[in-house]
Automatic annotation (TrEMBL):
Pathway: Porphyrin-containing compound metabolism; protoporphyrin-IX biosynthesis; 5-aminolevulinate from L-glutamyl-tRNA(Glu): step 2/2. PANTHER family: GLUTAMATE-1-SEMIALDEHYDE 2,1-AMINOMUTASE, GLUTAMATE-1-SEMIALDEHYDE 2,1-AMINOMUTASE 1, CHLOROPLASTIC-RELATED. GO terms for molecular function: glutamate-1-semialdehyde 2,1-aminomutase activity; pyridoxal phosphate binding; transaminase activity. Belongs to the class-III pyridoxal-phosphate-dependent aminotransferase family. HemL subfamily. It catalyses: (S)-4-amino-5-oxopentanoate = 5-aminolevulinate. Its main location: cytoplasm. Its cofactor is pyridoxal 5'-phosphate. It comes from Zunongwangia mangrovi. The keyword Isomerase applies. It is an enzyme of class 5 (isomerase). The modification N6-(pyridoxal phosphate)lysine is found at residue 267. This is Glutamate-1-semialdehyde 2,1-aminomutase. SUPFAM superfamilies: PLP-dependent transferases. CDD domains: OAT_like.
Length: 430
């Protein structure tokens, strides 16, 4: 494939945008090479500036669950734009999307809209701190909750130690209030809680993590977190920015039947426009300004264009619940197909999957937390795989730590092409 124009555009971009991108993972730094500049997208395909057509497994990192330029979403945005793009006042459409979200998601009474998943998680933690009067939080190594200071904490030398900042600019003061645990290690979490008695406001977790590959929760792990929170008065925050409106209409809470105290959303809820949201039962949500004391705000929060896209997207999903079965089935087909060809090619691998979240790791060892995911990525095979797939017209995320984002626009023919590409790319791979 030729990427002449993309490379030229990247060179220009680098002169005026740090690293040429507005979000680091787009830069292909982990896999090498120049990023591809996209001109347009439709359904399961994206078209780059050099005219290459690619089958898309990034789907804007999750939002485009029904494929690109989905007509009801695009039409809703166009119609709404004609009436003005932002007023900074309440609008009826905000109530409509809130009503629908509350209907679709179990265990929530009220929802507040923000502009990104980062804002949703940041605000949820502030709310949890305000509600409980406690300051510390527990997060899991390898779970990503956006780029707010409290979350940019990597695993230190074990679950018991205080976190250290992994980005300059995050103060030690902030870092010490974020306690790190290993995903799927319930005993480790219990120990942290024991050692920080009455200091912890919340445990925030991607209930099905998608930012260290896709990690299935071990049996009893999420249930154990719920129980622990019930016993200690700690609030359980499910970050469903990736899994919400994807693993089921009601996200992981519905799929696995486990309730969280606060739930964060992003990605699908905005239909491809910048939207995040957080939600909880009345008792907690009424702690927010202007009713309660916890301040949280946004000039463009609940923006009418964003709400129009989100409402159209959620309406599609609620009126066609078969979509969730359909994408699960497609992902299972892809899983089975890839497994078969990787086995036939003698490639050591592990494929993790929960519903329509899936990741391929080039190691036979189980990938169940951040440490094992990082270990599996060490051999560098993913980079070779990524570039090989791209050369064959398949666009997967340029990182060994991302799930593939499956859209319902993918046809079985697209999936067969993808499986054939995996077969070709992984011949003589080891
Ligand atoms: N939480 C999770 C689970 C995510 O995957 C992401 C983004 O990928 C975020 C939060 C942050 O969302 P945003 O990039 O919209 O700020």
């Amino acid at each position: 494939m030729i990427y002449q124009r993309s490379s030229a555009l990247f060179a220009e971009a680098k002169k005026v945008i740090p690293g040429g991108v507005n979000s680091p993972v787009r830069a292909f730094k982990a896999v090498g090479g120049d990023p591809i500049f996209i001109e347009k997208a439709e359904g399961a395909y994206i078209y780059d500036e050099d005219g290459n057509k690619l089958i898309d497994y990034i789907n804007s990192w999750g939002p485009m669950i029904l494929g690109h330029a989905h007509k009801p979403v695009v039409d809703a945005v166009i119609e709404r734009a004609k009436k003005g793009t932002s007023f900074g006042t309440p609008t009826e459409i905000e109530t409509k999307i809130a009503e629908l979200a509350v209907k679709m998601v179990p265990n929530i009474d009220k929802i507040r809209m923000v502009n990104s998943g980062t804002e949703a998680c940041m605000s949820a933690v502030r709310l949890a701190r305000g509600f409980t009067g406690k300051e510390r939080i527990i997060k899991f190594a390898g779970c990503y909750h956006g780029h707010s200071d409290s979350f940019l904490i990597q695993a230190g030398s074990g679950a018991m130690t205080f976190g250290t900042p992994n980005s300059p600019g995050v103060t030690q003061g902030t870092a010490k209030d974020t306690l790190l645990a290993a995903y799927n290690d319930l005993d480790g979490v219990k120990q942290i809680v024991d050692q920080n008695k009455d200091e912890i406001a919340c445990i925030i977790v991607e209930p099905v993590p998608g930012n260290m590959g896709c990690i299935p929760p071990a049996e009893g792990f999420l249930e154990g977190l719920r129980e622990l929170c019930n016993e200690t008065g700690i609030l359980l925050i499910f970050d469903e920015v990736m899994s919400g409106f994807r693993l089921a209409a009601g996200g992981v809470q519905e799929r696995l039947g486990i309730n969280a105290d606060i739930v964060c959303f992003g990605k699908v809820i905005g239909g491809g426009l910048p939207v995040g949201a957080f939600a909880a039962r009345n008792e907690i949500m009424d702690y927010l300004a202007p009713v309660g004391p916890v301040y949280q705000a946004g000039t463009l929060s609940g923006n009418p264009l964003a709400m129009a896209a989100g409402l159209a997207m959620l309406t599609e999903l609620s009126e066609h619940p078969e979509i969730f079965k359909s994408i699960d089935k497609k992902t299972e087909y892809l899983h089975e197909g890839m497994k078969k060809v990787l086995k036939a090619n003698g490639v050591k691998h592990t494929i993790n999957r929960v519903g329509s979240m899936i990741s391929v790791h080039f190691s036979e060892d189980a990938v169940s937390d951040f440490a094992s995911s990082a270990e599996a990525a060490k051999n560098g095979k993913f980079n070779k795989f990524f570039h090989g797939m791209l050369e064959n017209g398949i666009y997967i995320a340029p990182s060994a730590f991302e799930t593939w984002f499956i859209s319902d626009a993918l046809s079985y023919e697209d999936l067969d092409k993808t499986i054939a590409a995996v077969e070709k790319v992984t011949k003589d791979f080891d």
